[in-house]
Amino acid sequence: MNMIVPESTRGVSARPPVRWRLCWENDLELADHIELSDFFRKTYGPTGEFNAKPFEGHRSWAGARPEIRAIGYDDRGIAIHIAALRRFIKIGQTDLLVAELGLYGVRPDLEGLGITHSIRVMYPVLRDLGVPFGFGTVRAALQKHITRLLGRQGLATVLPGLRVRSARPDIYLTVPPTRVEDVVGLVLPIARPMSEWPAGDTIERNGPEL
């Protein structure tokens, strides 16, 4: 399925419009995985020495494999990507169904516009999935940046000071099978209000990060 982002989410008029393709994971062809793998290597590579490594061998995911993807194209190819996976996380003693958002990537020339485009596109997708909340995490160092782009615009509630425990996607003899990270959480109220988000600052992901 394909859709064109509305005019209000295209960004400045000097840039060509982004055409969004929404697709289930099973609908991706081999050529799609190859193109996405190349996009992620180029996008994540400059952020750290090992950040592009998961995408070697034409692999288009890093940890958990997504369920549905939103891929933004312009006249230069893939411009923006975000994905979602329905899962239960545990906050305190509460098991909570969320659509976890992850695998976010934006081409460097669109930095500052991509995340707001992506979240706006994902809102109707999450409503169709029937989940109570959308949920994602970013590094603590990005709190001010993500608050300016999403929190102040009302696109997400920013929860600083979270600790999330996740399973590693692969088993290594030299490190534990799980890891704990201090992160900033992003919550999108979809079918339930933010007042029903469980209290607690420790989250068990019970699986690999998306």
From TrEMBL:
<dbReference type="InterPro" id="IPR020567">
    <property type="entry name" value="Nodulation_prot_NodA_CS"/>
</dbReference>
<keyword id="KW-0963">Cytoplasm</keyword>
<protein>
    <recommendedName>
        <fullName>Nodulation protein A</fullName>
        <ecNumber>2.3.1.-</ecNumber>
    </recommendedName>
</protein>
<dbReference type="GO" id="GO:0016746">
    <property type="term" value="F:acyltransferase activity"/>
</dbReference>
<keyword id="KW-0808">Transferase</keyword>
<keyword id="KW-0536">Nodulation</keyword>
<comment type="function">
    <text>N-acyltransferase required for nodulation. Acts in the production of a small, heat-stable compound (Nod) that stimulates mitosis in various plant protoplasts.</text>
</comment>
<dbReference type="InterPro" id="IPR003484">
    <property type="entry name" value="NodA"/>
</dbReference>
<keyword id="KW-0012">Acyltransferase</keyword>
<dbReference type="Pfam" id="PF02474">
    <property type="entry name" value="NodA"/>
</dbReference>
<comment type="similarity">
    <text>Belongs to the NodA family.</text>
</comment>
<dbReference type="GO" id="GO:0005829">
    <property type="term" value="C:cytosol"/>
</dbReference>
